[in-house]
TrEMBL record:
It comes from Terrabacter ginsenosidimutans. It comes from the Bacteria. Keywords: Methyltransferase, Transferase. SUPFAM superfamilies: S-adenosyl-L-methionine-dependent methyltransferases (SSF53335). Coiled coil: none annotated. This is SAM-dependent methyltransferase. One of its GO terms (biological process) is methylation.
Length: 338
């Protein structure tokens, strides 16, 4: 088999109907834990509604959308959190009252998913379903979506020229192809300039375009991208292309056996602000502080609950873990849309 551009092999490895890792090998939770799973997911969902309230002054939006929803873990937490803060029943499919919660991913609706969560199947990668459009009063979350939108991988050759990296889909063996397309070259020159031989570049143009497409589907509301990432002052010279399977880091081979991912250039997205998750959650009031020990004597149940909450918050704030993720926040006002 001839080598192909990493971007093409990557897309097939994750999203092809008969091969794709996300289609054929179970949900992400089968292979790794994200902040959307378990107690951290519940705390994160509440924090996301706090973000909405801070920006819009209302307890809950008309619709919450979870893009790259896995098997609906965060969407389920969001449905519960919306019901808690609004005091209203969350609208399910066909509902005309209450906040709608919509999950978007590349598989059919998972069995056993909370009936309050609507489900839209997407094409995979940067593709979004046509039905996801005209969203008003919407909170849209793309949690670890952009890092699995395949992008051009390049490497600087001995002459200082960035050339596209090709890969054998069967083995993962790499070779250098031709120069970058004009659009990719312009992106690299603007956002990841390097002429040092051996340096790698993960051209974020595909991620920027996927994010812009998502933004264009929102008539009013707030969008949030949460992901592994970097900014201009910290571009990794060796790149970040990696793979995971069965909970372990493995060699990136685009044969459908593993999740292939690369960090996102967060500062090139169309966003109003870019900050770490730790910074964002602290601004929303999360501290991870241990409750006063005296509470254990006066109200043991409250102490245990507070201790559990503090532990969960601490995990989300950990600068070496979930707290090191990046948030890109974009506000869309009705008059912004033409």
């Amino acid at each position: 088999m001839d080598p192909v551009p990493w971007r093409d092999a990557w897309h097939e490895a994750l999203y092809a109907v008969t091969l794709g890792f996300y289609v054929t090998r179970g949900g992400p939770a089968t292979h790794f834990t994200t902040a959307t799973h378990g107690p951290t997911g519940a705390t994160l969902a509440r924090a996301l509604l706090e973000l909405w309230a801070a920006e819009h002054g209302t307890a809950a939006p008309s619709v919450v959308v979870d893009v790259g929803a896995g098997r609906g873990e965060l969407a389920t937490h969001l449905a519960r959190a919306v019901a808690d803060v609004s005091g209203e029943e969350v609208g399910g499919a066909g509902a005309v009252t209450g906040t709608r919660v919509v999950a978007v991913d590349v598989v059919d609706r998972p069995e056993g998913l909370d009936e309050r969560v609507e489900w839209l199947r997407s094409p995979g990668g940067s593709g979004l379903p046509a039905a996801l459009a005209g969203l008003r009063d919407a909170l849209v979350i793309a949690h670890e979506w952009l890092d699995v939108v395949p992008c051009t991988v390049a490497q600087v050759d001995a002459s200082g020229t960035a050339r596209e990296v090709l890969v054998d889909p069967r083995t993962g063996a790499e070779s250098l192809g031709g120069g970058l397309t004009e659009a990719d070259r312009r992106w690299a020159d603007a956002h990841w300039p390097t002429t040092t031989p051996g340096d790698r570049i993960e051209v974020g143009r595909a991620r920027d375009e996927a994010w812009s497409d998502l933004v264009s589907r929102v008539a009013s509301g707030t969008l949030l991208a949460v992901d592994y990432g970097h900014t201009a002052t910290g571009r990794p010279s060796g790149g970040t292309l990696a793979a995971y399977a069965d909970g372990r880091l493995t060699v990136p081979v685009p044969d459908g056996s593993c999740d292939v991912t690369a960090h996102v250039a967060m500062d090139t997205l169309d966003a109003d602000r870019v900050l770490t998750q730790r910074e964002a959650l602290q601004a929303l009031g999360l501290t991870g502080a241990t409750p006063p020990h005296a509470l254990a004597s006066t109200d043991p149940l409250a102490y245990v609950a507070a201790l559990e909450r503090a532990s969960t918050e601490a995990r989300l704030l950990d600068r070496h873990g979930f707290g090191g993720f990046w948030w890109a926040v974009k506000r869309v006002r009705e008059h912004d849309v033409t």
